[in-house]
## 1
Amino acid sequence: MWRPVDCRVAFAMAARWMGVLATVLALMGAVTARALQVTDDRGLTVSFNQPPQRIVSLLPSLTETVCALGQCARLVGVDRNSDFPQSIKKLPQVGGGLDPNVEAIVALRPDLVLMATSSRVGERLQSLGIKVVALEPRSHADVRRVIETLGLVLGVPDAGRVWRVIDAAVTAAAQSLPANVKEMRVYFEVNSGPYAAGERSFIGETLTRLGAKNIVPASLGPFPMINPEYVVRANPDVIMVSAFGDVGLAARPGWAAMRAIQFKRVCVFTKAQSDVLVRPGPRMAEGARIMAQCLLDQAT
């Protein structure tokens, strides 16, 4: 039979273990809360009690990344330029990515809006109680980070597999090219501003991995506005441009004398190809193959 003192000891030990258990549970709760926190490209931390189920995406590359992660079904609305995969075209459009229709977004009752950092509606949406994550990839490392961040937010295990497929495909595209292609000097015009894809951009990084020499150095930034005379002086071997930007290339002052124009080494991409090339997301592997084929065609 226990003496009274034994009961007091037993109660004390039980209380101590209950305290330990409460501490452990509190720590587990804290870890769980941290697991659903992400810091976006604005430097803001966004918390989630559970993975979002109703998503509006205002950037095509983010739309495509959500789908590449197998979560297309969670999208309830997109910007007007999001058009891949095909199923996305059935979703309500909420305007442009930079200045979407806020009322249309609210009407879709999203529990998350994905947007570029350059979009001007983030604060307004947050003031209405809508969670916003701004992500704007500009380099290969950014694309990998964005894929992994969205995988965390959406609760997708091993989201990094999407990047591994992209990375392997870019490597394969580079390995498919003969040695004589890999010294070609390239000018990639993103639009007729003219804005170019520099070495620091995801497009420039793909060109470098393919072995091409970008005439726009990293020091000028990812997508600098270029003086047309700069291109004339650089005298590239190959010009890559969209069908919209191809109009009047030879008529630009001094351009007719450039090597690429004289030898007709100009790759004019269709709108569909251009969409693939300028979106830093899951279709970068396809973009690498398009650029590799351009280099191969111009080398023959």
## 2
Amino acid sequence: MRPSVSSVRIILALVVLAFSAGCGGRTVVVTPRQAVTPAMRAQLRVDPGATRRDMFLGVGGRQYVPPANAPFTLVGKDETGFSVSYDVTSADGIEWSAKIGPEAQTEVLLSRVLWGLGYHQPPVYYVPSWKLDTGEGEPITISEARFRPKLARLDRSDELWSWADNPFSGTQELKGLLVILLMLNSSDLKDDNNSIYDVKEPWDGASRWYVVRDLGASLGETGKLFPRRNWFEGFEREPFITAVNGSTLTFGYTGRHQELLSMITPDDVKWAAGQLGRLTDAQWRDAFRAANYAPASAGRFLARIKEKLVDGLALRVDRRAVND
């Protein structure tokens, strides 16, 4: 006996409800809701092509390097997140966000890598030591920090964009971005880290940027409650892909929002691995140098990253599943 139309509708509704429950109350959109034009794709990523991007200075170049030796004036301090951050101004009037702690290195490194692959990133720089003028006596010296300028040409919107449902849902660029973050053990895949910038004059190939920011919870172990970041022992021992069943992948990732992984296929992993494989050893060295990693530490992290690239490129893609 064929099921009635009403029975089919009930079954479909139950499936949707079950999937939404497993996704923390949200459904992951895995195909585009509308045609994604080249101009729209450019808001997330611009293909660098054969151009070797400068991964030491990044998108800001030398123009926005924080001034050396001069003290920064305190505007405010935020201690609510994992890392303490300061809002400060430099003598030239530019306001900066300065994040201290172990995330300073990882955030700069991941930002350089994503930008090197064509994904939009605001300028960020690593500063090993700097002086803070609190207005109470002599300036104090503070250790390492990630400095990000607040620029008039980059107007950060109050609007966030969602991993689960966005203008790029279903595109290779979006799913590839997620795979790249998984390869680098980025454990903070929450929408609060996804910003939209309106660019006063077109910059980096677009007048609007969809950006993943605050990338510091990475290059360590993954987890839901304060995983240790910037820790190569944890980065080395955590697996990347643990199982392959046709077009379904199981990852070693143990962080939040695991429902997002349902959008990834072997084809997406191979594409992302191929993009990362386009970076030269010189670019990798520049990215680690920009974040002040010692050569031995950088080499150890990079060796594990390259192992993941090999694993990703070795995946067999079921074209029937992709085409279906």
## 3
Amino acid sequence: MHISEDHCHGHEHEHTHAHEHEQGHTHEHAHEHAHPHGEAQAMSFEETVTLLAYMLDHNRHHADELHDIAHALEDAGKQEAADAVSAALHYFDHCNDALEDALKIAKGE
């Protein structure tokens, strides 16, 4: 599988933000997940790991952008909107952490 460059952003930057999150909460979700595979060809293991790594990196980049959006909303005096983005980012970070765990497990790390 080839990851198309057309899908990537034309810029890169790195920065790290440490966020403290309240850990006194639980996340419970119940849902069914089903989708037909039809005629689509299955990905190889290597393609799967490559795609998962790409998606995790892509999601981390979007998390950085959401963080910047939350600060821009705060600066604009839109604290309620900033809080909503920050709350979403909290869950986004949890999802990215789970994807990172999946990637490590898949790679045997």
